[in-house]
Structure formats: C-alpha cells, structure tokens
Specification:
Length: 495
Amino acid sequence: MENQLKRYQMYIGGQWVDSASGETFTSFNPATGEPWCTVPKGTAEDVDRAVRAAGKAFEDSAWAKMTYTQRGKLLRRLGDLIAERAEELAVYETLDNGKLLREMRGQLKYLPEYYHYFAGLADKIHGETLPIDKPDLFVFSTREPLGVVAAITPWNSPLYLTTLKLAPALAAGNTIVIKPSEVTSASLLELMRLVEEAGFPPGVVNVVTGFGDPVGSALTSHPWVNRIAFTGGPESARHVVRGSAENFARVSLELGGKSPNIVFEDADPYNAAMGIVAGIFGAAGQSCVAGSRAFIHADVYDKVMELLVGRASGIKIGDPLASETEMGPLAIPGQLQRVEEYVQAGLDEGARLVFGGRRPEGLGKGWYYTPTIFEDASNQMKIAQEEIFGPVLTVIPFRSEEEVVKLANESKYGLAAGIWTSHVGKAHRVAKAIRAGIVWINTYRSISPIAPIGGVKFSGYGREGGWEAIYEYTQSKVVWVNTSTEPMPDPFIMR
Ligand code: NAD
C-alpha cells in the first residue's frame, strides 16, 4: 500500500531531502479516510540543518546582497507562478484537509494578491530622519530584517496561513524555516517547487515536515531563530512561547476564537441569517474566525432562526471535490470526536438541539458531521465559551445593545465579530465596544492582503497582513552622526 502513495521529501537549503532518521508518516484524505501520501518525519537534526541553512542565507548569500527591489521581483514571480498552478495546489489542500475544493480554489486564486502586495512593499521599507533636539547631530533610522523566521501553521488553510508569514518575511529581507501541520504538508511542499522555480537562492525558504514534538519544539527553541510566527491552538502556543524564551525570539500568535455574530432588530434578516451560515458552516466551522456564537435580537429572533435553520438544513454535505458540495468532512478523526464531545456537553448542560448533532449517513468512511444549531443556551455553557472548531452554532437571544456588548465580550477570546444592522451609529458604537481584532459589519469572513488580522486576549498577539506586517518582520536601527567640528565635550556626562 505504502508503495502506491505519493512520496514527498522536505526542502532544506535548496535540496530535496528525506528526514535524517529516514522515517516517514502518512497523510490521509478526510473525505475517504484513506491514506494518499507519505511525508518525511522530521527530527531535531533536520531542524538544525534547516535553521543553519536559513542563517547562512541571511548572513552571506545572494539573498543577503540583493536590493529590496530585486527581492520584490522574486516575490512577484512567485505570486505569478502560484496563479498558474492555483487549481492544482487547491486540489492538494482539499486532499489533505477535506475543505471544499471551491473554497481552496478561491483562496489559491486570491493568494497571488498577497505576494504582489508584499512585492510592492519590499522597496518601500525605509526609515526616517529624526529632527533631534540637540545641535550638531544628524540622526536617522533604518528598518532592518530580523534574521531567521520560524513559521508554524495549522491544517485549516495551509497555504493562506503560510503566505501571511512568508510574503512579508521575505519582503523585509528575512529568511525562513516553515513547519506545516502534520495533517497538511503536501501543498507547502508543492509550493517549494515554485519557490525554486521563481529563483530564490538556496536556504532562503526551507520546510521541515513533522510533528509539534520534536520539529516544532526544536524550531521554536533554536538559538539561531530570531522571530516566530505561529498559528494554531493555545496549548501549542504556550510551548512556542516557552521555546522562544531560549533565544528571546519575537513571537506573534494567531490563535482561535469564539466569535460573536450579532443580529440587531433593524438588520436585513435574510442577509444576517446567511452571514451566520457563512460564519459557522463555511469550512465546516474549521476556521479561526468562525462565528460560533450568534446573538439575535428578540424582536427578530423567530424570523432569523427560520431563515437560518432553513438554510442550514439544506446544506449539501459530501465529497469536497464535487462542485455542488457545500460542506465537506472535518480534517482529522480527532476533530470529529472533539465536535461530538462538545455536542454532548451542550445537551448535558441543558441546551436544546434545533438541528443536526450527528454524523450524516451514507458518506462512507469520511469524517463528516452535520451542521448543528443549539438554542436555549446560556453564554456560560461550554458550547458558548470554548472553541469547538467544527460546525456547531450556539444561538442566544438579547434585548438591548448594552446587554449584547456585555455578552459578546464575556469570552476569553477576542479574534473577530460580526454586526448586522442598518443603523450606522449603532454599527460604529458596537464595533468600538467589542474587544476583538477584526469586526465585520453586514459581512463576514472577508479577507484582503491590505487588512491586518489578529486577535486580542486569548486569541493571541501580533498582526498578519497589511502594512503592519512589515513592522512585524523588521526592527529599527538608529544612527547618530556628529557633524560638529568642535572637540568632544566632557566625556563624563551624557550628550
Ligand atoms: P495545533 O495548535 O494543534 O497545531 C498548530 C501547529 O503547531 C502544528 O503545526 C503543530 O504541529 C504545531 N505544534 C504542536 N505542538 C507544538 C510545539 N510544542 N511546539 C511548536 N509547534 C507545535 O492547532 P491545529 O489543531 O493544527 O489548528 C487548529 C487551531 O488553530 C485552532 O485553535 C484554531 O482556532 C487555530 N487557528 C487560528 C487561526 C488564526 O489566524 N487565528 C487560523 C487558523 C487556525
């Protein structure tokens, strides 16, 4: 069986290599439960080799000598190559994580925009002249790259979440070692062929595949790593932050959420209901920004629920490669089990199941789950407080703006929020009052390279995307020039 599977290698220092141990692991197709490829099981030794290759490329290589404009051109070329291969890359993502081909295709076709955006920024990274408050001193700052970046990603949107790190890190002149999720290594390894074809010098971009322990932990605690960009869950994030302490590497964390989707009485009920569907059943709820708590004003509760349940109950579940499918399987069996446990917890705590709450029939061995909606729930229940990362929605009615802001903020998370209203003042008031990194008004799950994403509280820190990302991958250096012709003043006082 092993022999029939596609066999991948890692990409270290411009070479395609097996793991130092020679071991591999298998990746499964969530739609069938069948294995489809093997991937090298990286070790701490592989990590060390990759980080050293990245360190060397940063210090002393064609990359180190390149102008920002030349680096921008390489990034643009990579974006163009991704555009040419978007369809194929999307299929690899779907085979690995079970998300709809049409969603992955959409993401992959849009991905070049990120490379083009950051390619454009590459030669606009500059410092400032500082109007210093002392005579005879000319002072300016430059913005410099940080060095070796370690990027660690989860399985839900492998190339999109990699790109949020890779594109700005390279635009700023860093080098990078990427560890994809052990669930979804294939599309990143395919991307490395394009990195090679685009002409990035060896060692600038490296991939070590494998598990959190040992690959993730060896990477985040490696003494040559200067910056860690992590997307994933809070447990792994704690390990990452501890690992970073070894080298005081700068860290950004993009963690999960329990995002509120708020429908006011003056909202368009159809749009709001579809916004809730998009927020929680898009990607089968395996989205960091999933709108997993819906707060609906009591005056429109019945109407919005009717539309919501009507649409959710009509969702076509099945083969993620088929064009008519609207919800595919969950990515791993453990995720399916986690969803089942949370649904049971909801029932045990007294919430009422309005729809779903089971595995659908007739879909073979795939890891499918029905769209699930709970009502009669309190905001304190587990299903309203903990991230499920699956297609499970908890609906809670409210009566006033003040009440719903309090409910929305009663969460350890703070990644995203949706507001549905036709009242412009209310939209702005509530957007300001919600503690989250992203607020969508009368829309949900919109993304752009120009808009930063990231959370507050338990959802992490640091931002990805937008101009801010350049600051995340650079640091300033301040240069003081004495222009005076006078002898040095008293050496024992600060100047
Ligand atoms: P995870 O935390 O289990 O794994 C994420 C990555 O961390 C994987 O590559 C994993 O191998 C690695 N890892 C595990 N242990 C590690 C360690 N000790 N040191 C270093 N790396 C380690 O998360 P997941 O299950 O793959 O993804 C789901 C989670 O990711 C959810 O909580 C979700 O909300 C979050 N997520 C957040 C965003 C965002 O942008 N905020 C986006 C997507 C997913």
